[in-house]
Amino acid sequence: xxxxxxxPDELTRPFWQAANESRLVIQNCNACDRLQHPPEPICRxxxxxxxxxxxxxxxxGKIYNYGVVHDCPVSLLQDDQPFNVAVIMLDEDPGIQxxxxxxxxxxxxxxxxxxxxxxxxxxxxxxxxxxxxAVE
Amino acid sequence: xxxxxxxxSMYRSEEGLGVWEHRGKVAAVGVGHSPTxxxxxxxxETSVGAWSILALRRAMEDAxxxxxxxxxxxxVPVTTTGAFWPDDKPLPMEAIxxxxxxxxxxxxxxxxxxxxxxxxxxxxxxxxxxxYGPVCMSNALNVASQAVGDGxxxxxxxxxxxxxxxxxxxxxxKNAANxxxxxxxxxxxWGAPASFGTALQFAEYCSKxxxxxxxxxxxxxxxxxxxxxxxxxxxxxxxxxxxxxxxxQLARWIAKPANLFDNDIPITVAAxxxxxxxxxxxxxxxxxxxxxxxVSSETKPRSMTPTLDEVEADTARTGRMIxxxxxxxxxxxxxxxxxxxxTLFHQFHLEGLGYRGIKFGEALxxxxxxxxxxxxxxxxxxxxxxxxxRSRFWMHTDCIQxxxxxxxxxxxTGVKPEIxxxxxxxxxxxxxxxxxxxxx
Amino acid sequence: xxxLISFDIDGxxxxxxxxxxxxxxxxxxxxxxxxxxxxCSDRPMSTQRAIWNQxxxxxxxxxxxxxxxxxxxxxxxxxxxHVGDRDDLDRKYALRAGFEFMWPDEAAEKxxxxxxx
Lengths: 136, 440, 117
Fold this sequence. Notes:
The complex is a heterotrimer. By secondary structure, chain A is mainly beta.
């Protein structure tokens, strides 16, 4: 299953650069000590654009919920249907979610609440993408 | 006239604001609808611009107002969420050249500006106020209500139009490319369709409260039944098909647990309303429908997609704001017409309202009771988007028509139509209007 | 035994929205020749039945696209063919279910639907 390639833009460049180094970073407001994802130009809490930084995560999380995609809008993924899309909560902050195809997990057999660890997959243009694998 | 989105100061998005200062002083007095079509056939006379003009003219005619009496225009400038003119497709010059143009060739074809409308509606000679209510008719209604109340406009047209093109909705463009920009990629490269977030919330709901997807069937059948009694709607006009429980329950998944029929069908259509002051409304053709309150939720999820907890907290908050500003309680609602574009979130709206006393986790059980227009607890008498296609305004038209006694075969009979609420789209974030048959 | 043919409706059959090139007469001819026929569409199943009834054409089944594997299990036939106009829906589901797939204009040229043969 190969995802679309990514052309990093100014806002998300640190995220995608870190991914290419097999690191997960999430945007953090240093003033509020608050993570936010997806990244935004300003802190959603205090509104400042000056206090945002990127913080490395452990790469550990839990599966919060999932759905099974049978009719997907992205052309590159249509031959892989049906597939899982899970919502992962990071151990550092369960309020921070990421999506995952949960490589290695059978369709519709997702262990909700289970632990996951980050892995990095190569996308269609060589950009690495954070993914998550279920672990014991 | 450089038109911008209406300022945030026009929206009522906090608790504790008390009763709306213009409660009962603004009224809806005219409704106009265009025909519907599944997709645009690229003829000038069926373009989104042409049908917008038609809807506006019909609204004025319905109200008995001459165009020169209109001094305000509130529209939604975006006419799609998923049908974009492909970059490599030649522009539809016949349709573009059939009208007076703006600097954007797609204006009137795949988007809409007030400038385009005013250039092509020379009869609107006195428009002094113009604003955009972005995203939805629900938003535009809030802006128009506040604008009339504030005296920025006295007789205001409100418009939302949709276009749909060949090809599948949301497909093409960025989704068809081999790569995408970094910001879009954060969410989109996992290929979750539009109904995915709602599907997740519904899955969590079923797990938490011990409910099943099959329990949605009566709501679906009821909505389609009501929609088939909406002559302005797509299904009634083109495909008068009922939706049985079997039809619904066996349909293919889009993003399990959201199936094909849990997603509304994209169409081309336009609707317009005419708002004026309650004072002026008394002398016009139709029975006025008074606006008692308008409310906005600007809540965003903490992260990628709202959790059920976030949905329940925000729908409850929205419910409180709706009642506070209108000076009513849930017991005062005759009926509700909350949004249903993804069917699986209508129940969140109902529970947030505490409609007929239902609490969180009870809406699917409520669907198994009499929710028909003939019963004491009508649910979505408009039929919503499920009943009539993707417009996000059937709910508002129905509120007006029900309270005027003009809903035809769809007229609710099990309860006297006195006060109603409509709005959306999403349970987290949205705009809502409280309507009343009387100003107090 | 016979060959089973499932028809998509919209974009395939003349009664579809948009109309396709496969006419209801073609279906009648196929049935006369002993083919098993029915529809496999995104239209509600009750609507699919109503369409066949409205045109006085008997049908052996109606189903949704994802039900083709079940259809194959339920009907013993010499062959299975789905006629449809969408690559992402008709062709994909057909091939996945082990059906032969035909575009509507290919079907229209097929002798199955010709009264001359």
